[in-house]
Amino acid sequence: MMQTNPFQTILDELGEVKQLLHLIQKEPELELKKKFYSFKEASEILKVDYQTVRSHVLKGNIKAEQLGRFYRINHLDLMAALKDVKSLKYKR
Fold first, then answer.
1. The whole model's pTM is what?
2. Fewer Cβ atoms within 10 A, N terminus or C terminus of the chain?
3. Residue at 64 is within a domain
């Protein structure tokens, strides 16, 4: 006679719940990939002057996309720059 685990149904459902949670955790990451900031917003986040952000973008230290005459900085690129914020403040 074959013995089945009485908890198998619960384990299967837990597996589904884990998958759903994983998807939900990844969702904000996907949303942030679509988020962009102006120089002014980025300067407030980095706690540096607007001109500092502008000059770093123009030098290529912070990646940004040019849309017409405006630049937009992707959230993930800004977070990468934030990790280097000390060096950004003093990088010439």
1. 0.59
2. N
3. yes
